[in-house]
Write a structure and sequence with these properties.
alpha+beta, 5-stranded mixed beta sheet
């Protein structure tokens, strides 16, 4: 086989490895804009690590069984950013956008999940941050309008 073939193969394998590696502590995982401290707050893994972590198992509309999710409460993320608003516009890596009432985060223990079944979430598997509702704990959360608010590959929140 040619040298070019080996170079391409090595480059592809290296890219795949980096895609599966969890983000480093200094990488920005989530950017909050709008009605937040100084108009912009960038959260790294280290920022998440300073917060209280929570976990629960719940069914989802896109996974089998009841995976266990671990992360920080969305209301704590907003408090960390000094957010003052009644809704957030959540944006994903794939440009999916949905408005979510901040009330959801106070009414339910909604997670900014960084782990599913003890495995760090990466962009290949709905991470690095996934908004997860405790669906099995509240019958109302089985409603499709809440399914639309489960934003995976979350990268930005605009507080309004």
């Amino acid at each position: 086989m040619s040298l070019r073939y080996h170079i391409v193969q090595t480059a592809l394998m290296t890219a795949l490895v980096f895609m599966a590696v969890p983000a480093a502590a200094e990488d920005v995982l989530l950017t909050l804009t709008g009605a937040v401290t100084n108009g912009r707050v960038e959260m790294t893994r280290a920022d998440f690590d300073t917060m209280d972590w929570h976990e629960f198992s719940t069914s989802t509309s896109v996974t089998d069984g009841r995976p266990e999710f671990r992360g920080v409460l969305m209301r704590d993320v907003l408090a960390h950013a000094g957010a003052e608003g009644s809704s957030v516009r959540a944006t994903a890596l794939n440009d999916y956008v949905v408005d979510i009432p901040v009330e959801d985060f106070h009414r339910f223990d909604v997670l900014a999940a960084l782990y599913m079944d003890d495995v760090p979430l990466t962009p290949r598997d709905k991470g690095p941050v996934w908004i997860v509702y405790p669906r099995d704990n509240h019958g109302v959360l089985a409603d499709i309008r809440y399914d639309m608010r489960w934003v995976w590959q979350l990268v930005a929140l605009h507080v309004q």
